[in-house]
Specification:
The chain has 28 helices and 27 strands. The chain is α/β, with parallel strands linked by helices. It has 4 domains: about 425 residues, Alpha-Beta Barrel (TIM Barrel), CATH 3.20.20; about 110 residues, Glutamine synthetase, N-terminal domain (Ubiquitin-like (UB roll), Roll); about 210 residues, Glutamine synthetase/guanido kinase, catalytic domain (Creatine Kinase, Chain A, domain 2), CATH 3.30.590; about 120 residues, 2-Layer Sandwich (Creatine Kinase, Chain A, domain 2), CATH 3.30.590.10. Strand 9 and strand 10 form a beta hairpin. The longest helix is centred in the first third of the chain and has 24 residues.
Length: about 900
């Protein structure tokens, strides 16, 4: 077991964590408002004086001594070493603490006076922090915002009763906003602290009359307190009403088929405000049953009721168990016992890591170090007894530390290759001083302190990449402040030459919100006059409203929503692998099209490696090297059949990440080619006799049954003519759609390993799953909408459950079959003959009320059709050569 466990141990110590429950750090000017001894204890006041003899504190002191490199282990010396570390280089301390933390989910309701805002913490980690909204804090903030209502002359019973109705409306309104806010990933209730009966919550909506009476009583009590006293809801029925109201809003939220945000509940261990016997999560069983569609996360290992919580997480699909707070609050032996108990019964995919870090960075550090130590011991035991093989152990570790939270909270995070092997940092001496001078945002190998600019990018409906460029410092401030870039809503209705279409409207604003998980290095430029290199990064973005709610008009949002529905309804998590087919052209003024092939036309062919292809290696090497720096290591590349054409194979990724990666890879190809004096184009037929596509390889995953696979692809095949409006959007697209030319053909059909049909099925090979190649996609498409269309049609097919609708496996060139043979295979339709025909097919789906239109969004589909019609008219008014050059130079 030794060598196999060594590999598992490396994963345990190096794999990044998503901290699914933590709190804000204190601002420097308030660093002393809480005693530092509280890092290892829930005790306070006189009771906290006994912490120094507590085993958990003794152990933590030794680990802090190592962190600060203190010469002595006595507590005063450790405090002196800590003070020196914070004074000399506080950022170095933060770098040591958060070295292996990928993302933090922050409950910012613990203290809103002395701490940094939740988004400030994004500078500490690879991915931006997300917010957990504390339910009770929302309600109390509404009351605290209207202090005049509690003055003596405003306190008559009738007036306060009316006030409850206003309060009720305000609470619902704010909670709905938070449900829609993409920065909010979960809610939390501390009802365990707020009523004598703690978690014994009635499994029914409280009587609204009694709730109003409790609210009136609460308001009256405020008036009897000292001026400035803040509202704190202590009534059992009032707190139960807040919780039920929130759960019902989450349950009934209309777009919730995509994703219902979890509710975290404090259970078990806490300060003296709780009643320990009533903090047993077993009391929650009726409430959990009442809201089966709402995910519940039982916090703090429910210690000492871990087994009870594990039982609930086992028998209810909507219950998850957080493994936090006991690290570093209890002894090593206690931690091992809790971890073993959590694994006795609970499915591994229901267990979530958290630090419950709060106020002091060291709380995050101690929790993570001790959790990894405990995990190493327990996993080692399971491997020693043969209960886990090495691969199973690695999966357990990765699931608890990262993957489970990533999926439950729908964070959409992916790990770059370099992030999965971070060396553990045990002390400040292991941090390079120069690199620790600041703690920049570092995502996917981009250190913002080392780049000059960030290109915040998005795609319009026509598939063009648009950008706003920010100096890196301005970008960092934008992200840290949780802000977005405002653009006119009318920009969604303009054509490639900036002329207006019928859907262009001058009124309205949308906001472009950077998605820092997509941050990647861009191709650098060099100032020819000075030789100075200008470095930059690229970051894809999402359209949001002024309240940061995702907009249904955003192609990226549409794709994300469909992926969420596939996961939620059918447990399908697709992977997409794109082929980057590109043709390199050299300027040629003698050509009517202004360009000529880059490589020799007589010696270039599919997979050839003749001197002209060898001469292209410097450019090809520059591309592959840069893609690797973008965390997109290519699988392989080779010459394609057209002169100057090459193909790069990107790795399979989740749909949103795959679309982002394709656009960023294409842009890198174009910028590097330009530096070599060439034009890289993804136009489907840039020169006579040439042809490029953007084939998408779609895997539905090992959990997808054969029946589900047929239902999915039956939905796609049934709507393929309409889908071509997204995948083959222009008349120029159809110049490459030919029979018997290995371009996917013109017949609506599918076949196993058949390249003459638009849907090629690639059967499963050893240790792999089957995938389908969608061959009717090209470089003029908006890739988000193209994928959304295909996956959306598959989603509808799964819901309809009609299989492949009579379409059989075509193992021949459909164009060479007789009509009778085609009919026998269920081949009854042809692909559209042009962009207008494809849009007509899509328009028929709109008018017929097809479910695909509702999945994509009717307004978006209608606007898209109008915009593409306007594009077709604009291109038609140009001459053939002019319109051809126009598209080659833009795509």
């Amino acid at each position: 077991m030794s060598s196999s466990f060594d590999a598992v141990r490396r994963v345990i110590q190096a794999y990044p964590v998503i901290d699914n429950h933590a709190h804000n750090l204190l601002r420097e000017e308030h660093a002393d408002v809480h005693p530092f001894e509280s890092v290892t204890s829930e005790a306070s006041g006189q009771a906290l004086k006994g912490v120094h003899s507590q085993l958990s504190h003794v152990r933590a002191a030794k680990q802090l001594q190592q962190l600060y490199q203190s010469r002595s282990g006595d507590w005063d010396s450790i405090l002196d070493a800590r003070k020196a570390a914070r004074r000399n280089n506080p950022q170095k301390l933060l770098s040591a603490v958060f070295a292996r933390t990928h993302c933090i989910l922050i409950d910012d309701g613990l203290d809103q006076t002395h701490v940094h805002p939740y988004h400030w913490h994004s500078r500490l980690t690879h991915a931006p922090s997300k917010r957990i909204v504390r339910i009770e804090s929302v309600a109390e903030a509404i009351v605290n915002a209207r202090p005049s209502l509690y003055e003596e002359d405003a306190r008559d019973p009738a007036g306060v009763s009316q006030l409850f109705a206003a309060f009720q409306g305000s609470f619902k309104y704010r909670m709905k906003q938070y449900i829609e806010d993409p920065e909010v990933v979960a809610f939390k209730s501390v009802i365990c602290y707020r009523s004598q009966s703690s978690l014994d919550v009635a499994a029914r909506q409280p009587d609204i009359g009694r709730v109003a009476e409790a609210f009136v009583s609460h308001v009256f009590s405020l008036g009897k307190r000292d001026s400035g006293k803040k509202s704190r809801f202590a009534s059992k029925i009032l707190n139960e009403w807040l919780l039920h109201e929130t759960l019902a809003l989450i349950r009934d939220y209309r777009p919730a088929k995509v994703h219902r945000k979890p509710v975290q509940l404090h259970t078990g261990l806490g300060d003296t405000d709780i009643r320990l016997l009533q903090s047993n999560p077993a009391y929650l069983q009726p409430l959990i049953e009442m809201y089966p569609m709402v995910p519940f996360v039982l916090l703090h290992s429910a210690y000492p009721y871990t087994r009870e919580a594990g039982y609930l997480a086992t028998v209810y699909s909507n219950v998850f168990l957080d493994l936090g707070e006991i690290f570093p609050q209890i002894s090593r032996g206690g931690q091992l016992a809790v971890l073993r108990q959590s694994l006795e019964l609970t499915p591994v995919h229901k267990l979530l890591y958290s630090s419950d870090g709060h106020y002091f960075a060291e709380t995050y550090y101690l929790a993570e170090v001790q959790f990894r130590e405990a995990l190493e011991v327990v996993v080692g035991e399971l491997m020693q007894t043969g209960e886990l093989e090495a691969d199973q152990a690695k999966n357990l570790v990765q699931s608890i530390l990262f993957e489970n939270s990533n999926q439950l909270y729908r964070l959409g995070l992916s790990l770059a290759a370099g992030l999965t092997a971070a060396a553990p940092r045990a002390s400040l001496d292991s941090i390079d001083t120069a690199s620790a001078a600041i703690v920049p945002i570092t995502t996917n190998a981009v250190n913002l302190a080392a780049v000059d600019y960030v290109h915040v990018q998005w795609t319009d409906y026509l598939g063009q990449i648009c950008a706003r460029t920010l100096p890196s410092a301005a970008f960092s401030r934008l992200v840290a402040d949780g802000k977005s870039i405002g653009i006119s809503h009318g920009n969604l209705g303009t054509l490639q030459n900036d002329s207006n279409s019928p859907i262009c409207h001058p009124v309205g604003q949308i906001y472009v919100k950077p998605q820092t998980s997509t941050l990647k290095p861009a191709v650098s430029a060099t100032d020819p006059s000075t030789g100075i290199k200008i470095t930059s990064a690229t970051c894809m973005s999402t359209f949001v409203s002024s309240t940061s709610a995702p907009l249904p008009s955003c192609p990226r949002v549409v794709l994300s929503n469909i992926v969420g529905q596939l996961q939620t309804e059918f447990n399908i998590s697709p992977l997409i692998g794109f082929e980057v087919e590109v043709i390199f052209l050299r300027p040629d003024s003698s050509s009517p099209l202004s360009y000529a092939p880059y490589t020799n036309t007589t010696s270039h062919s599919w997979s050839s490696f003749n001197p002209p292809q060898h001469a292209a290696l410097p450019l090809l090497h520059a591309i592959t090297t840069h893609l690797a720096a973008m965390s997109l290591p290519i699988e392989q590349f080779h010459a394609e059949s057209a002169p100057g054409q090459f193909e790069f194979i990107l790795p399979p990724l989740p749909p949103l990440a795959a679309a982002d990666a394709l656009l960023q890879a294409r842009q890198a190809c174009q910028h590097l080619a330009h530096q070599h004096g060439l034009r890289a184009t993804f136009h489907p037929t840039p020169l006579p006799g040439t042809s490029t596509a953007a084939h998408a390889h779609v895997s539905l995953g090992a959990r997808c049954s054969p029946t589900a696979e047929q239902n999915f692809w039956g939905g796609v095949l049934h709507r393929l003519r309409a889908l071509c409006a997204f995948t083959l959007p222009s008349d120029a697209s159809y110049a490459r759609v030919k029979d018997s030319a290995w371009t996917g053909g013109r017949h609506v059909a599918w076949g196993t390993q058949n390249r003459e049909v638009p849907l090629r099925r690639v059967p499963a090979e050893a240790q792999q799953v089957a995938r389908w190649e969608v061959r009717c996609v090209d470089g003029l498409a908006n890739v988000y909408l193209a994928l959304a269309g295909v996956l959306g049609a598959g989603l509808v097919g799964l819901r309809e459950g009609k299989g492949l609708r009579g379409a059989r496996d075509c193992t021949a060139d459909p164009a060479k079959l007789t009509e009778g043979q085609q009919e026998e295979l269920g081949i009854r339709e042809m692909l559209p003959g042009g962009g207008a025909e494809a849009r007509a097919a899509l328009r028929e789906r709109v008018e017929g009320g097809d479910a695909l239109v509702e999945v994509l969004g009717r307004r978006l589909v209608e606007d898209y059709i109008v915009l593409r019609d306007a594009e077709g008219k604009m291109l038609g008014e140009m001459g053939r050569e002019e319109s051809h050059r126009f598209l080659v130079e833009r795509y």
